[in-house]
């Protein structure tokens, strides 16, 4: 079976359950924390895949990484379901799939602005306003990253769209023109 299909099915089932129990936003926040934990701590993947780490420890590790508390029955029950079905190693992919489903259902666009240096507050505010105008009624989940390799300018990614107004891209385009 397709590796992407299984996480999507689990994420969809979790979203439906969370929506019915009016905790979809809380689960969204927990899944964000879990995906960030996987991104910032590569050893988390190794621990979850390690056959010598007990099921209980894996569940505890993942619930802690998601920021769950004793009262988060949805997350605890979900982690136990994953453990019962030997799917704990897919927790990261399920979290990412859940985030995608939640954003789609709530009309939230993931916006990432990458600039070569920190932007002035007024400049960033103006850029946010332009992006919001482009998005219309959609809500913006905004992230700003710094990448000095851009040399100057910025890149804007909105879900799968990308606008590259960086000096590095201009130089790349110029090199391509010179080669032709």
Automatic annotation (TrEMBL):
Keywords: ATP synthesis, Cell membrane, CF(1), Hydrogen ion transport, Ion transport, Membrane, Transport. GO terms for molecular function: proton-transporting ATP synthase activity, rotational mechanism. Pfam families: OSCP. InterPro entries: ATP_synth_OSCP/delta_N_sf, ATPase_OSCP/dsu. Its main location: membrane. GO terms for cellular component: plasma membrane; proton-transporting ATP synthase complex. It comes from the Bacteria. It is found in: Cell membrane; Membrane. The keyword Cell membrane applies. It is a peripheral membrane protein. Belongs to the ATPase delta chain family. This protein is part of the stalk that links CF(0) to CF(1). It either transmits conformational changes from CF(0) to CF(1) or is implicated in proton conduction. F(1)F(0) ATP synthase produces ATP from ADP in the presence of a proton or sodium gradient. F-type ATPases consist of two structural domains, F(1) containing the extramembraneous catalytic core and F(0) containing the membrane proton channel, linked together by a central stalk and a peripheral stalk. During catalysis, ATP synthesis in the catalytic domain of F(1) is coupled via a rotary mechanism of the central stalk subunits to proton translocation. This is ATP synthase subunit delta. The gene is atpH.
